[in-house]
Design goal:
The complex is a heterotrimer of chains A (127), B (440) and C (476). By secondary structure, chain A is α+β, with helices and mostly antiparallel strands. Chain A contains four helices and nine strands; from the N terminus they run E-E-E-H-E-E-E-E-E-H-H-E-H. By secondary structure, chain B is of the alpha/beta class. Classes of the chains: A alpha+beta (127), B alpha/beta (440), C alpha/beta (476). At the B-C interface, helix 1, helix 3, helix 4, helix 5 and helix 6 of B face helix 1, helix 2, helix 3, helix 4 and helix 5 of C.
């Protein structure tokens, strides 16, 4: 399983990437996509919507389940990854490339883990 | 006493023993004594099949089945080809549950897929679901397909049938949704009022019945354009037989089309079971409530069908589901499919054309009996007339002669309907009777 | 199998309609311009097509159907006969009351009988299915609080073992959902319930026996807690087949119930409907019921509109012909028969449960009601054989699998409900099949994992179906 060093992680299995332009990309982790199985659809917010740290920003659907995705940050949705609406499998194929939303004007962030801590956390959770 | 239990008394005893119970009471020991009924409930003792059969036949005979029906208003008497009942009486279809186990439900699943295709063809839209309870609940459900965070107000034309409007109101009461009725003018939706009343910022949708309650064909294309100019969705509720001859919802710009499928091979049956159908544009596919069947392949690459897009539904999404519907009207949907197969495009076109022709003939003839048409607008198979004598008097006289006349509306008016079932001879006789009463 | 469209031959058709005997009229500018593709087939084509589809559809008549929570009992043929009497099928719903006395009698009699069976005072037959009944019943609860000006009661409490329709219905009726956990023994957690109720509680929705097949022994305490908090109790009748003539929701403290006539009362399910989900209530809620009730007067039966109705939930009077079937069934069974049906439903379930308990892990190892839940979690971890694999293996025995992965509180759940109409012989077959599959799972897990092996199609690719939805046939 893959835990890129440059990313930060939430305990609800989202990853956060701080971009150079001050925005933040959010996606779900390799661990999460494996647990969820083949994804068949994503429900994302709209551009301009507010997201709040710790609250659901959307959800992902597999054939027999739906799972909320929680926002690790508070801010405004600057962009959504529209490619995923037609090809949710990209999240399974490349979880760290398939970002879900880009957030700007970030005012708050929940406590995030670094790669090592997150890897340890997933091992714990798997037991 | 009637019973459908296979096991004999001694088998039951043997099984109780094997499972470790002294008697039936022992099986129910978990039920608190305060609510446990020692002697059952106070309903009559059971009867044999023969007795029940006679009882129910006797009850059915207390109804009047009219030989001559000129009433529609949401339930229509059409010819039901013999093949329709023969197919839907097949026990495998009748006694199956919802097709959860695709491997042994391919027949059921495929028939739903075929139904969805036929509804798409009739409406001209991209996708359809496996059915909902009836046309009225379909109309109500369609409102919530269109409701969005910022667009929350629903609009409906006053020309919608009262039964449909009533159900829409109830569903809107449930979800605390504002439902605003756009008034009618000369038997059709008042377009000026529509433009004035619909709020461009908060309007979610407008529901239009086509043909409307009075049988009139509304200018749906223009209404669709006006609704879209307000940024709202356009929903059309359609008579499926009329769809063979009238402009499709797709051609009128509808985002969602729904309707009452009863005319497609279902008996009037005192109001049910009927069939609600729902179709939508591809963009709104995931907003459709209820079961949807999709094509796929099995592990050996063979074509097969499954229930799909299930994550929209209540059993997965629970309180976040768009609707709570699970059981729908599957066998009624199959009835419609068989009906549409038996008619074919040409046959359905003929039924529709017969309905239109007969209704127009009847309207002209009733004029001669002093029943003046109220509206002068294009119509399908229903129309409203004045009545020079109290409507009840006329209708009672018709009833005595075996005719179910039109439906009395307020103001002494009558809503008439003719279908392919009504012959010229029958209509002429009706008119003759009307003349006798109305000329007094 | 070919689709009906693939059997189509241009110009082929059935002979059904006479020529037009009046001048022809068309719709002019309102006319359809879009081409319409419907099948062009002969009656023979249709007959064979649907016979082929019927062969690939498993109904109760094809074999046993122990689908938990669905009560797939035998559907008596007399039901079909009475519901197809022309005296019922040929009646227009808007005929004058004096011409529909038979239909009104059916509704009136059914209300009395089902009212007595459930312990309720009044009933509506408008709802077309169980979920529709839930929505209707919750509207009664909403109206009750609304009319009293008690507008802060916005929450419905639902146990985590509930059917998905419960929370979905609550939201449709404008409520927020409060989920409460179940105890380890599968019952309502009384402490959690006490903590959840309050001034914002509109009501509680409960299935009893619950979805793990246990009768909640604390039922009177549960309904009392809710009543004392000012809420009402809603009974989900999905599992009534366990307690017909044995216990009544009305005596347990419930104020509103819905029934599933297509489950408990043997009207068939039709491959997904039409069902019927009548809603019964105590007298104090009667005037909120949808539409009209039927009353008997010296001049005959007539409709009596409810004074403060929540409105209609369906056009006309519900799935009337389905009510005819259920009434037929109840008249045959009567007082003794309904109790006997429930007793045998419970016996049959316990017979299978005890027959399987040595091999399978029972989620709750005690006397069950009409159904029970097993967990395949151990097998899943130890030999990678899942509940789904076991279920799919049953297909090769010609047996419809139990409900899978429900309730959500049991992992790798299989929920088995044999119903009272299965015989000892078929139950023994079911036990045998389950045991044989369990053995096979240990010796040849790959075989079980790839089941079914004998069906018309193998396991279908549901991921592909959901990712690239193909929901209709596309004409060339």
């Amino acid at each position: 399983m893959n835990f890129p060093k440059e990313l930060k992680y939430s305990k609800s299995h989202e990853w956060v990437s701080y971009e150079q332009d001050g925005t933040v990309l959010i996606g779900i982790t390799d661990y999460a996509q494996k647990e969820l199985g083949d994804l068949v659809f994503v429900n994302l917010p709209e551009e301009g919507d507010g997201v709040t740290a710790g609250e659901a920003l959307g959800d992902v659907e597999s054939v027999k389940a739906v799972s909320d995705i929680y926002s690790p940050v508070t801010g405004t949705v600057a962009e959504i990854n529209e490619e995923l609406l037609d090809a949710p499998q990209k999240i399974n194929e490349d979880p760290y490339g398939a970002w879900l939303i880009r957030v700007e004007n970030v005012t708050d962030t929940e406590e995030l883990l670094d790669a090592d801590a997150y890897e340890a956390f997933t091992k714990e959770e798997n037991q | 006493m009637g019973s459908f239990i296979s096991n004999t008394g001694s088998q039951q005893k043997e099984m109780l023993k094997k499972a470790g119970y002294a008697d039936f009471d022992a099986l129910f020991e978990g039920i608190p004594r305060e609510v446990y009924l020692k002697d059952g409930v106070q309903i009559p003792s059971g009867l044999s099949e023969l007795e029940v059969c006679e009882k129910m036949e006797e009850t059915a005979a207390k109804n009047t089945v009219f030989r001559h029906v000129f009433r529609g208003a949401g339930s229509y008497r059409h010819y039901i080809p013999a093949i329709v009942k023969s197919v839907t009486a097949k026990e495998d279809f009748l006694t199956a549950y919802t097709p959860y186990q695709a491997e042994i439900s391919q027949g059921n699943l495929q028939s739903i897929f075929e139904f969805q295709t036929m509804i798409c063809e009739l409406t001209g839209l991209d996708v359809a679901n496996a059915s909902v309870y009836d046309g009225a609940t379909a109309a109500a459900e369609s409102v919530f397909m269109c409701k969005e965070r910022k667009r929350t107000k629903a609009y409906v034309s006053a020309t919608t049938p009262p039964e449909v409007l009533a159900v829409m109101k109830t569903y809107c009461y449930g979800r605390n949704t504002e439902l605003i009725v756009i008034p009618e003018k000369d038997g059709v939706t008042d377009l000026d009022a529509l433009v004035l009343m619909m709020d461009g910022a908060s309007a979610a949708c407008l529901y239009l019945q086509q043909p409307n309650y009075y049988g009139i064909l509304e200018d749906a294309g223009t209404i669709g354009r006006l609704v879209h100019e307000k940024g709202a969705r356009f929903i059309m509720g359609c008579n499926p037989i009329a769809l063979a001859v009238m402009k499709t919802p797709a051609e009128c710009g509808a985002d969602v089309a729904v309707g009452e499928g009863q005319p497609l091979g279902l008996s009037m049956g005192f109001g049910g079971p009927y069939l609600g159908f729902m179709a939508a544009t591809k963009e709104m596919m995931r907003k459709l409530p209820g079961r949807i069947v999709g094509e796929t392949t099995d592990s050996e690459g063979k074509r097969g069908f499954v229930l799909t897009l299930q994550a929209r539904e209540q059993h997965i999404r629970r309180e976040k589901a768009g609707s709570n519907i699970c059981s729908n009207q599957a066998l009624c949907a199959m009835t419609a499919s068989v009906y549409l197969s038996a008619m074919g495009s040409a046959g359905l076109f003929e039924v529709a054309k017969l309905c239109t022709s007969k209704a127009h003939y009847l309207r002209e003839e009733l004029k001669k009996a002093r029943l003046k048409p109220v509206y002068d607008k294009p119509f399908f198979h229903e129309f409203v007339t004045e009545c020079p004598v109290p409507a009840d008097t006329l209708l009672l006289r018709l009833e005595e002669k075996g005719y179910l006349g039109g439906l009395p509306l307020s103001g002494g008016r009558i809503l008439w309907c003719a279908t392919e079932m009504n012959t010229k001879t029958e209509m002429d006789a009706l008119v003759q009777l009307v003349k006798e009463v109305a000329s007094v | 199998m070919k689709l009906i469209f693939e059997r189509s031959v241009p110009g082929r058709r059935c002979s059904i309609l006479p020529p037009c005997d009046v001048p022809e009229t068309d719709l002019g500018e309102f006319g359809r311009t879009k081409e319409l593709h419907l099948p062009e087939v002969s009656e023979n084509d249709i007959s064979r097509h649907y016979t082929e589809l019927a062969k690939e559809t498993h109904g109760v008549n094809d074999g046993q159907y122990p689908l938990g929570s669905c009560t797939m009992k035998y559907n008596p043929k007399i039901n079909e006969y009475t519901a197809s009497l022309p005296g019922f099928t040929g009646v227009h719903p808007l005929q004058p009351e004096r011409t529909v006395q038979g239909c009104l009698k059916v509704l009136h009699t059914a209300e009395k009988l089902f009212g007595e069976i459930t312990g309720m005072d009044a009933m509506t037959f408008e709802p077309a299915a169980g979920a529709h009944g839930e929505f209707t019943g919750l509207l009664l609860i909403k109206a009750y609080h609304d009319r009293r000006g008690d507008t802060k009661r916005t929450k419905i409490i639902v146990p985590d073992s509930a059917h998905g329709t419960n929370p979905a219905s609550a939201v449709m009726a404008g409520f927020m959902v409060v989920n409460i956990p179940s105890t380890e023994d599968g019952l309502v957690d009384l402490d959690a319930l006490r903590a959840a109720v309050g001034e914002d509680t509109a009501g509680l929705m409960l299935t009893n026996p619950n979805t793990v097949g246990l009768f909640d022994k604390n039922i009177l305490t549960i309904t009392q807690i809710v009543h004392e908090a000012g809420g009402l109790n809603y009974y989900d009748g999905a599992n009534l087949n366990a307690v017909m003539g044995v216990a009544r929701p009305g005596d347990m403290g419930f104020d509103v119930v819905h029934l599933n006539l297509h489950k408990t009362f043997s009207t068939p399910h039709g491959g997904g409907g039409p069902g019927s989900g009548p809603v019964g209530c105590k007298a104090f809620l009667k005037e909120y019921l949808p539409g009209a009730g039927v009353v008997q007067t010296p001049d005959g039966y007539c409709f009596a509109h409810h004074a403060d109705s929540v409105g209609s939930v369906k056009a006309f009077y519900g799935n009337f012909l389905v009510v005819v079937k259920a009434l037929t069934y109840i008249l045959m069974l009567g007082r003794e028969g309904i109790r006997e049906a429930s007793q045998n439903a419970v016996l049959n379930a316990n017979y299978i449960r005890t027959g399987l308990a040595d091999a399978y892990d029972m989620a709750y190892d005690e006397t069950c009601m009409h159904e029970f839940v097993m967990s395949l979690e151990q097998e899943k971890h130890a030999i990678h054989v899942s509940a789904m694999d076991i279920a799919k293996s049953l297909l090769d025995y010609g047996i419809h699998p139990p409900t899978m992965y429900f309730p959500l509180i049991v992992h790798e759940a299989l929920m088995v409900e044999p119903t009272e109409t299965e015989s000892k012989e078929t139950l023994d077959e079911l036990i045998h099949a389950f045991l044989e599959i369990h053995e096979k799972a240990k010796t040849d897990p790959a075989y079980v994992q790839s089941a079914p092996h004998t069906t018309a199609v193998k396991r279908l690719d549901e991921v592909q179906a959901a990712r690239n939805p193909r929901l209709r046939y596309v004409f060339e």
